[in-house]
Amino acid sequence: MQPVEILRNEYFRRCRENARYSIRSFAKQAGVSPGSMSELLSGKRPLSIKIADKIAAKIGLRLRPKDAATISKDYQKISDDEYQLISDWYYLGILNLMKLKDFKSDVQWMAQRIGLSKVQVQDAIDRLSRLGLIENKNGRYRRVKKRLSIESDVPSSAIRESHRQRMHLAIQSLVDHSIHERDITGSVLAIPATRLPEAKQMIKEFRERFVDELEIDGKADTVLNLCIQLYPITKEI
Protein backbone atom coordinates (compact mmCIF):
# COMPACT_ATOMS: atom_id res chain seq x y z
CA MET A 1 0.00 0.00 0.00
CA GLN A 2 1.30 3.44 -0.93
CA PRO A 3 1.96 6.04 1.85
CA VAL A 4 -0.84 8.28 0.57
CA GLU A 5 -3.29 5.35 0.84
CA ILE A 6 -2.21 4.70 4.42
CA LEU A 7 -2.64 8.37 5.33
CA ARG A 8 -6.00 8.51 3.58
CA ASN A 9 -7.24 5.41 5.39
CA GLU A 10 -6.07 6.83 8.71
CA TYR A 11 -7.98 10.06 8.05
CA PHE A 12 -11.13 8.11 7.15
CA ARG A 13 -10.75 5.96 10.28
CA ARG A 14 -10.64 9.06 12.45
CA CYS A 15 -13.70 10.47 10.66
CA ARG A 16 -15.63 7.27 11.39
CA GLU A 17 -14.76 7.46 15.07
CA ASN A 18 -15.51 11.17 15.38
CA ALA A 19 -18.22 12.70 13.20
CA ARG A 20 -16.76 16.18 13.84
CA TYR A 21 -13.25 15.27 12.74
CA SER A 22 -12.18 17.25 9.67
CA ILE A 23 -9.39 17.83 7.17
CA ARG A 24 -8.52 20.90 9.22
CA SER A 25 -8.05 18.79 12.36
CA PHE A 26 -5.95 16.20 10.52
CA ALA A 27 -3.81 18.90 8.89
CA LYS A 28 -3.21 20.66 12.21
CA GLN A 29 -1.98 17.46 13.83
CA ALA A 30 0.20 16.70 10.80
CA GLY A 31 1.73 20.18 10.75
CA VAL A 32 0.55 21.17 7.26
CA SER A 33 -2.10 23.54 5.95
CA PRO A 34 -5.66 22.24 5.35
CA GLY A 35 -5.31 23.04 1.64
CA SER A 36 -2.08 21.07 1.34
CA MET A 37 -3.54 18.12 3.22
CA SER A 38 -6.61 18.10 0.98
CA GLU A 39 -4.40 18.07 -2.12
CA LEU A 40 -2.21 15.29 -0.70
CA LEU A 41 -5.14 13.03 0.20
CA SER A 42 -6.88 13.64 -3.12
CA GLY A 43 -3.72 12.89 -5.10
CA LYS A 44 -3.50 16.38 -6.60
CA ARG A 45 -0.11 16.85 -4.93
CA PRO A 46 2.55 14.10 -4.90
CA LEU A 47 3.52 12.74 -1.49
CA SER A 48 7.22 11.98 -1.14
CA ILE A 49 8.49 9.38 1.32
CA LYS A 50 10.30 12.13 3.25
CA ILE A 51 7.15 14.23 3.73
CA ALA A 52 5.08 11.12 4.44
CA ASP A 53 7.48 10.11 7.21
CA LYS A 54 7.31 13.57 8.79
CA ILE A 55 3.51 13.58 8.74
CA ALA A 56 3.33 10.01 10.04
CA ALA A 57 5.65 10.83 12.94
CA LYS A 58 3.47 13.78 13.99
CA ILE A 59 0.18 11.86 13.89
CA GLY A 60 1.64 8.67 15.38
CA LEU A 61 1.29 6.50 12.27
CA ARG A 62 3.66 3.84 10.93
CA LEU A 63 4.38 3.70 7.20
CA ARG A 64 7.47 1.59 6.70
CA PRO A 65 7.38 -1.95 5.27
CA LYS A 66 9.14 -3.22 8.42
CA ASP A 67 5.90 -2.44 10.23
CA ALA A 68 3.79 -4.48 7.84
CA ALA A 69 3.33 -7.10 10.55
CA THR A 70 0.91 -4.72 12.26
CA ILE A 71 -1.50 -5.18 9.36
CA SER A 72 -3.79 -8.19 9.59
CA LYS A 73 -2.71 -11.15 7.48
CA ASP A 74 -6.31 -11.38 6.32
CA TYR A 75 -5.91 -7.96 4.71
CA GLN A 76 -3.34 -9.35 2.27
CA LYS A 77 -5.67 -12.01 0.85
CA ILE A 78 -7.61 -9.51 -1.24
CA SER A 79 -6.71 -6.18 -2.82
CA ASP A 80 -6.78 -2.92 -0.85
CA ASP A 81 -9.72 -1.76 -2.98
CA GLU A 82 -11.74 -4.91 -2.31
CA TYR A 83 -11.00 -4.78 1.42
CA GLN A 84 -12.18 -1.17 1.74
CA LEU A 85 -15.31 -1.87 -0.32
CA ILE A 86 -16.33 -4.61 2.10
CA SER A 87 -15.27 -3.06 5.40
CA ASP A 88 -16.45 0.58 4.98
CA TRP A 89 -20.21 1.14 4.91
CA TYR A 90 -20.26 4.16 2.64
CA TYR A 91 -19.17 2.38 -0.57
CA LEU A 92 -22.48 0.55 -0.78
CA GLY A 93 -24.12 3.76 0.43
CA ILE A 94 -22.73 5.71 -2.54
CA LEU A 95 -23.66 2.92 -4.95
CA ASN A 96 -27.22 3.14 -3.71
CA LEU A 97 -27.23 6.94 -3.93
CA MET A 98 -27.00 6.37 -7.67
CA LYS A 99 -30.43 4.72 -7.57
CA LEU A 100 -32.12 7.87 -6.29
CA LYS A 101 -34.37 9.73 -8.72
CA ASP A 102 -32.69 13.04 -7.85
CA PHE A 103 -29.12 11.69 -7.99
CA LYS A 104 -26.46 14.20 -9.10
CA SER A 105 -23.01 13.21 -10.37
CA ASP A 106 -21.49 15.90 -8.18
CA VAL A 107 -19.05 15.09 -5.38
CA GLN A 108 -20.30 17.97 -3.22
CA TRP A 109 -23.93 16.82 -3.57
CA MET A 110 -23.03 13.23 -2.72
CA ALA A 111 -20.96 14.33 0.28
CA GLN A 112 -23.84 16.39 1.69
CA ARG A 113 -26.44 13.70 0.94
CA ILE A 114 -24.58 10.91 2.71
CA GLY A 115 -22.77 12.93 5.40
CA LEU A 116 -19.15 12.51 4.29
CA SER A 117 -16.32 14.80 3.28
CA LYS A 118 -15.63 15.53 -0.39
CA VAL A 119 -12.27 13.77 -0.05
CA GLN A 120 -13.96 10.60 1.21
CA VAL A 121 -16.52 10.64 -1.58
CA GLN A 122 -13.95 11.26 -4.31
CA ASP A 123 -11.76 8.47 -2.96
CA ALA A 124 -14.76 6.13 -2.90
CA ILE A 125 -15.73 7.09 -6.47
CA ASP A 126 -12.18 6.39 -7.66
CA ARG A 127 -12.14 3.02 -5.90
CA LEU A 128 -15.57 1.98 -7.20
CA SER A 129 -14.41 2.91 -10.70
CA ARG A 130 -11.23 0.83 -10.38
CA LEU A 131 -13.31 -2.13 -9.23
CA GLY A 132 -15.53 -1.81 -12.29
CA LEU A 133 -18.68 -1.19 -10.22
CA ILE A 134 -19.44 2.25 -11.67
CA GLU A 135 -18.66 4.16 -14.82
CA ASN A 136 -18.82 7.75 -15.94
CA LYS A 137 -20.65 8.35 -19.20
CA ASN A 138 -20.96 11.90 -20.48
CA GLY A 139 -20.24 13.30 -17.02
CA ARG A 140 -22.76 11.11 -15.22
CA TYR A 141 -21.91 8.25 -12.89
CA ARG A 142 -23.93 5.06 -13.06
CA ARG A 143 -23.75 1.59 -11.57
CA VAL A 144 -22.41 -1.18 -13.76
CA LYS A 145 -23.62 -4.09 -11.62
CA LYS A 146 -27.14 -4.06 -10.17
CA ARG A 147 -26.57 -6.37 -7.18
CA LEU A 148 -23.50 -7.23 -5.12
CA SER A 149 -23.00 -10.27 -2.91
CA ILE A 150 -20.15 -11.01 -0.50
CA GLU A 151 -18.51 -14.39 -1.04
CA SER A 152 -17.65 -16.75 1.81
CA ASP A 153 -13.87 -16.41 1.30
CA VAL A 154 -13.81 -12.72 2.28
CA PRO A 155 -11.33 -12.09 5.16
CA SER A 156 -13.12 -12.17 8.51
CA SER A 157 -11.47 -8.91 9.59
CA ALA A 158 -13.19 -7.05 6.74
CA ILE A 159 -16.59 -8.50 7.66
CA ARG A 160 -16.10 -7.68 11.34
CA GLU A 161 -15.22 -4.08 10.53
CA SER A 162 -18.30 -3.81 8.32
CA HIS A 163 -20.52 -5.10 11.15
CA ARG A 164 -18.89 -2.74 13.66
CA GLN A 165 -19.52 0.30 11.47
CA ARG A 166 -23.13 -0.68 10.77
CA MET A 167 -23.83 -1.12 14.49
CA HIS A 168 -22.29 2.29 15.15
CA LEU A 169 -24.58 3.83 12.51
CA ALA A 170 -27.58 2.21 14.17
CA ILE A 171 -26.61 3.68 17.54
CA GLN A 172 -26.15 7.12 15.96
CA SER A 173 -29.55 6.79 14.29
CA LEU A 174 -31.16 6.69 17.75
CA VAL A 175 -30.02 10.30 18.15
CA ASP A 176 -30.29 11.57 14.58
CA HIS A 177 -33.64 10.13 13.45
CA SER A 178 -37.16 10.14 14.83
CA ILE A 179 -39.05 6.89 15.41
CA HIS A 180 -40.98 7.65 12.22
CA GLU A 181 -37.75 7.43 10.20
CA ARG A 182 -36.30 4.25 11.68
CA ASP A 183 -37.30 0.89 13.07
CA ILE A 184 -34.99 -0.58 15.71
CA THR A 185 -36.65 -3.49 17.45
CA GLY A 186 -35.59 -6.83 18.91
CA SER A 187 -36.70 -10.13 20.35
CA VAL A 188 -35.21 -12.59 22.80
CA LEU A 189 -35.96 -16.28 22.20
CA ALA A 190 -34.83 -19.72 23.35
CA ILE A 191 -34.20 -22.33 20.65
CA PRO A 192 -32.28 -25.61 20.19
CA ALA A 193 -28.75 -24.71 19.07
CA THR A 194 -29.09 -27.25 16.27
CA ARG A 195 -31.66 -24.98 14.59
CA LEU A 196 -29.29 -21.99 14.33
CA PRO A 197 -28.34 -22.77 10.68
CA GLU A 198 -32.06 -22.87 9.85
CA ALA A 199 -32.58 -19.52 11.59
CA LYS A 200 -29.71 -17.93 9.62
CA GLN A 201 -31.16 -19.23 6.36
CA MET A 202 -34.56 -17.75 7.22
CA ILE A 203 -32.93 -14.36 7.87
CA LYS A 204 -31.07 -14.53 4.55
CA GLU A 205 -34.28 -15.30 2.64
CA PHE A 206 -36.11 -12.49 4.45
CA ARG A 207 -33.41 -9.94 3.53
CA GLU A 208 -33.51 -10.94 -0.13
CA ARG A 209 -37.31 -10.80 -0.25
CA PHE A 210 -37.34 -7.47 1.63
CA VAL A 211 -35.02 -5.84 -0.93
CA ASP A 212 -36.80 -7.34 -3.95
CA GLU A 213 -40.23 -6.12 -2.82
CA LEU A 214 -39.27 -2.59 -1.73
CA GLU A 215 -36.74 -1.45 -4.32
CA ILE A 216 -38.47 0.18 -7.31
CA ASP A 217 -36.31 1.48 -10.14
CA GLY A 218 -36.61 5.23 -10.73
CA LYS A 219 -38.74 5.97 -7.67
CA ALA A 220 -36.31 5.85 -4.73
CA ASP A 221 -35.66 9.06 -2.79
CA THR A 222 -33.80 7.76 0.29
CA VAL A 223 -31.15 5.17 1.15
CA LEU A 224 -31.67 2.88 4.15
CA ASN A 225 -29.40 0.47 6.01
CA LEU A 226 -30.98 -2.86 7.03
CA CYS A 227 -29.13 -4.70 9.80
CA ILE A 228 -30.26 -7.90 11.53
CA GLN A 229 -28.31 -9.28 14.49
CA LEU A 230 -28.78 -12.76 15.90
CA TYR A 231 -26.37 -13.81 18.64
CA PRO A 232 -26.34 -15.82 21.91
CA ILE A 233 -26.65 -14.10 25.27
CA THR A 234 -26.08 -17.29 27.27
CA LYS A 235 -22.63 -18.53 28.28
CA GLU A 236 -21.27 -22.05 28.29
CA ILE A 237 -20.69 -23.42 31.84
Could you walk me through the main structural features you see in this protein, from its secondary elements to its overall organization?
The protein has 237 residues and is mainly alpha-helical. It has 2 domains: 3-71, Orthogonal Bundle (434 Repressor (Amino-terminal Domain)); 74-237, no CATH class. It has helices at 3-17, 23-30, 34-42, 49-59, 80-87, 90-97, 107-114, 118-130, 156-176, 196-214, and strands at 134-137, 140-143. Helix 2 (23-30) packs across helix 3, helix 5 runs parallel beside helix 9 and helix 6 (90-97) packs across helix 8 (118-130). It is globular. The model is unreliable at 65-77 (pLDDT under 50).
Give a quick precis of the structure.
This protein is mainly alpha-helical and 237 residues long. The protein is built from ten helices and two strands.
What is this structure's SSE topology?
Elements: H1 3-17, H2 23-30, H3 34-42, H4 49-59, H5 80-87, H6 90-97, H7 107-114, H8 118-130, E1 134-137, E2 140-143, H9 156-176, H10 196-214
Antiparallel strand pairs: 1-2
Helix pairs in contact: 2-3, 5-9, 6-8, 7-8
Number of separate structural domains = 2
Q: Give the terminus-to-terminus CA distance.
A: 45 Å
With strands numbered from the N-terminus, the spatial order across the biggest sheet is 1-2
The helix-strand sequence is HHHHHHHHEEHH
The strand count comes to: 2
What's the number of helices? 10
Q: How much of the sequence is in beta strands? A: under 5%
- Provide the helix percentage: 40-55%
**Main beta sheet: strand number and arrangement?**
2 strands, antiparallel
The radius of gyration is 20 Å
What would you call the quaternary organization? single chain
Shape call: globular
The residue ranges in which pLDDT falls below 50 over 5 or more consecutive positions are 65-77
Mean pLDDT: 84
Structural class by SSE content = mainly alpha
